[in-house]
Design a protein that fits this description.
- The structure is a single chain.
- The protein is of the alpha/beta class.
- The chain has two domains: 7-123, Response regulator (Rossmann fold, 3-Layer(aba) Sandwich), CATH 3.40.50; 128-226, Arc Repressor Mutant, subunit A.
- The chain contains eight helices and twelve strands.
- The protein has helices at residues 15-27, 38-48, 64-72, 88-96, 109-123, 157-168, 176-183, 192-206, and strands spanning 7-11, 31-35, 52-56, 79-84, 101-105, 131-134, 137-140, 145-148, 151-153, 174-175, 216-219, 223-226.
- Strands 2-1-3-4-5 form a five-stranded parallel β-sheet, with helices on both faces.
- The longest helix has 15 residues, at 109-123.
- The protein is globular.
Length: 227
């Protein structure tokens, strides 16, 4: 019986990985199409109209980052990058070009499924909701108010803007550069230490135990995400 869940396009030149992902994702109710080159992937994105793309960066024809750039010219479809550890800078560039998340090879299927669910939730329009709940945290966008366990937390304007950007992209990894650009502007996009100081301040206010944060999670060498 054909699945009628969200449509996922896999772009990866490794036949074994494509087969593994096709079987695993289909068993979880997703409708899956897989291709082996960047050109086939761009064509399939137009014809198949996926709800999410899983993209390997190491393609035989078109560079994975170029695939992200071309997709972003006309589509907002969530893109999850498959990368190897040595591709960290390439991975960051892909995220800055518009990819939504990444999973490092080798990866567990449970992790990929969680990233897929988070990306699909985000595209459903979290930023349109006036109030978001994250465990003990409540963020009221209309009144620019954040509470923890019902108690209001006082944030500076800059701290609030950082939390707001993370919240409307909940579950999605935001790179250092994208956060700095969004909150402080393009001239600050390399001031990573500046960002770390503010994230530390915010954690001391939002987290029960700032040394073991449950809400604002560090993606080492890449950026942050709000869970």
């Amino acid at each position: 019986m054909e699945n009628n869940g969200p449509r996922i396009l896999i772009i990866d030149d490794e036949t074994q990985i494509r087969r593994f992902l096709r079987v695993a994702l289909s068993s979880h109710g997703y409708l899956v199409k897989d291709v082996g080159t960047g050109k086939e992937g761009l064509d399939a994105a137009a014809m198949f109209s996926p709800d999410l793309v899983v993209l390997d960066l190491g393609l035989p024809d078109i560079d994975g980052i170029e695939v992200v750039r071309q997709l972003r010219e006309w589509s907002k479809v969530p893109i999850i990058i498959l990368s190897v550890k040595e591709q960290e800078q390439v991975k960051i560039t892909a995220l800055d070009c518009g990819a939504d998340d990444y999973v490092t090879k080798p990866f567990g299927m449970g992790e990929l499924l969680a990233r897929i669910r988070a990306a699909l939730r985000h595209v459903s329009g979290a930023e349109e909701q006036p109030v978001l709940q994250f465990g003990d945290l409540t963020i009221d966008f209309v009144h620019r108010r954040i509470t923890r366990d019902g108690n209001e937390i006082k944030l500076t304007l800059t701290e609030y803007e950082l939390v707001r950007n993370l919240a409307i992209n909940a579950g999605k990894v935001l790179t250092h550069k994208s956060l700095l650009r969004a909150v402080w502007g393009p001239s600050y996009e390399n001031e990573v230490q500046y960002l770390r100081v503010y994230i530390g301040q915010i954690r001391r206010k939002l987290e029960h135990d700032p040394s073991r944060p449950r809400h604002i999670i560090t993606e080492p060498g890449v950026g942050y995400r709000l869970l």
